[in-house]
Specification:
Elements (H helix, E strand, L loop, with lengths): L1 E5 L3 H12 L6 E5 L2 H11 L3 E5 L7 H8 L7 E6 L4 H9 L2 E6 L4 H25 L2 H22 L6 H9 L4 H4 L3 E7 L10 H17 L6 E5 L5 E5 L4 H16 L3 E5 L9 H16 L8 E2 L11 H10 L2 H17 L6 H23 L8 H9 L3 H23 L2 H13 L6 H8 L3 H12 L3 H19 L4 H7 L5 H12 L3 H5 L3
Helix pairs in contact: 1-5, 2-3, 4-7, 5-6, 9-10, 12-14, 13-16
Length: about 525
């Protein structure tokens, strides 16, 4: 790889040279501080990449590049300038410049742009070997450059700065900044994390792209490109996206005999939202990719909104044997698990599910004071064989329903027995329902309902009864003062204790002590 650096300021030229030398690539570097000398080197060495300042003695860097460009020689160019002028940027890109770097710039930015351009040069050299046509090469290079920028917009939030808008104008994509749009992610069904490498899968990708490109030919404005996992990304400003997505799915099925998954973002109204649109569409794509449905597309705004239950909440639902609620929470959990970026493959999905089930079992053990066996190996094996989210839901629901039945058959009252044990030991303390629920790893609402169902009393009534029984015993069998007895059974307000005691027993504590 040959590269020439052209800069009339010695310190800047030396800094550029040092930066390029730090790149771990096989690069031959030429330097020049004048346009005349640079032309001689370029004519003799034909460097692959020219990095030039605009303002040079004798002629501008842009004039130099124009003079170098020949039908048989089209090097890549990075223009460096201290002038943030649209005319300079436009002319730079028109003559074939890959990038426009404004001074002052960081060494890291300079190295990144040079590295990207060198990698692109290598890619384009390979394409030249295949095509042997300079015109086709230039067209593909421009598309690759455009697509690289579009992928960057998807992968990270990008503000609409002047130089970004200028690029959109040059690629006729300024509609992304001037109107609303939608973003779709699409690929062969069943591969939420991207298809494996191989010629067969590459052919599928190629075929899907051809069909979609033909469908959007008259659907302007629209642009189609691929993300880093070779999934097709479609950005479109058209309003009737439902008809378009249905056509895409049906046409690919009919012409290529392939089912595809398609995830759509909500309608976006700002250029800066491209990243958010991509994340939305990718989440919907992952879910649709593992869904048994094949003739519809899923938007990220799904009907079954809501968070899945925590292991403790799910344990409460299982103990209560709320079958419909179990199914709903499993439905939400599976979709959240599959849509998570950290679960990019089936192994991670299965691991996440097993961890969730294990946490549920731990919460149930603590709640009912009974040991349950570990997750059976048959469940592990069944999860490994799942290929759709419906299959995941079926296996999880089946296991949790069986677990719920086992709890019910063993002793549903075990939770309440454990709660009563806690009350018996700690009734004299400030013992709220929340404290007991936390100790049992249950939601307080579920504990309250279960307590009422199994004892026929509310939690507070039961606690008060326990305290009054102990108070009666102390009044008759000890010589403790009444205020001491009140405190020993959990009341720090003597008047309140007396009021509760009389309401429960029909006598004041003093009357009860002396048998009046």
């Amino acid at each position: 790889m040959k590269l020439i650096l052209i800069e009339d300021e010695p310190d800047s030229l030396n800094g550029m040279k040092n930066a390029v030398e730090s790149i771990a690539m096989d690069i031959t570097i030429y330097i020049s501080n004048t346009a005349e000398r640079a032309l001689e080197i370029i004519e003799e060495q034909r460097p692959d990449l020219i990095v030039t300042d605009i303002m040079l003695p004798g002629m501008t860097g842009l004039d130099l590049v124009e003079q170098c460009m020949k039908e048989y020689y089209s090097p890549k160019v990075i223009v460096v300038s201290g002038y943030n002028d649209f005319d300079y940027a436009r002319r730079s890109l028109q003559i074939g410049a890959m990038d426009y770097l404004l001074k002052p710039y960081s060494t890291a930015d300079f190295i990144e742009k040079v590295q990207k351009t060198i990698i692109l040069i290598d890619q384009q050299k390979a394409l030249i070997e295949q095509m042997k046509q300079q015109q086709a090469y230039a067209e593909i290079g421009n598309r690759l450059m455009r697509d690289n920028y579009l992928v960057d917009f998807c992968l990270k939030p990008t503000p609409l700065e002047e130089h970004v808008y200028q690029r959109l104008q040059l690629w006729e994509l300024e509609w992304l900044a001037n109107q609303s749009y939608s973003l779709f992610v699409m690929d062969t069904k069943g591969y939420p994390d991207g298809k494996p490498n191989g010629s067969g899968f590459a052919l599928q990708t190629f075929a899907i792209g051809n069909i979609v490109q033909e469908l959007i030919k008259d659907q302007t404005p629209s642009i189609l490109f691929k993300d880093p996992k070779n999934r097709w990304i479609l950005l479109t400003g058209i309003e009737m996206v439902g008809e378009l997505t249905t056509s895409i799915i049906n046409q690919v099925k009919q012409l290529h005999k392939t089912d595809i998954s398609l995830g759509a973002s909500s309608r976006m109204h700002k250029f800066e939202n491209i990243h958010a649109a991509y994340e939305e569409a990718l989440t919907a794509f992952r879910i649709h990719s593992l869904s048994a449905e094949s003739n519809v597309f899923y938007e990220s705004r799904m009907n079954d909104t809501g968070d899945p239950s925590s292991p403790a909440e799910m344990a409460s639902i299982i103990i209560e044997k709320e079958e419909e609620l179990i199914k709903l929470r499993v439905h939400r959990f599976v979709r959240q698990t599959i849509s998570s970026e950290t679960n990019a493959n089936r192994q991670n999905i299965v691991r996440e599910i097993l961890n969730y089930l294990t946490d549920i079992i731990i919460c149930i053990r603590e709640a009912v004071s009974k040991d349950f066996e570990e997750i059976p190996m048959s469940v592990w094996e069944s999860l490994d064989e799942c290929r759709t989210l419906e299959e995941y839901e079926k296996i999880i629901n089946g296991y949790l329903m069986k677990l719920s039945a086992e709890i019910a058959s063993s002793n549903v009252n075990a939770v309440i027995e454990r709660a009563i044990q806690i009350i018996s030991k700690q009734y004299m303390e400030d013992l709220s329902l929340q404290i007991i629920a936390d100790e049992l790893n249950l939601h307080p609402v579920w504990l309250s309902q279960l307590f009422k169902k199994e004892t026929g009393q509310t939690y507070l009534d039961y606690l008060t009864g326990k305290r009054m029984e102990q108070a009666k015993k102390l009044l008759r069998e000890t010589s403790l003062k009444i205020y001491e007895i009140a405190e020993s059974v959990g009341y720090h307000d003597l008047q309140h204790f007396g009021s509760v005691f009389k309401k429960r027993v029909g006598q004041t504590p003093k009357e009860f002590r002396y048998g009046k």
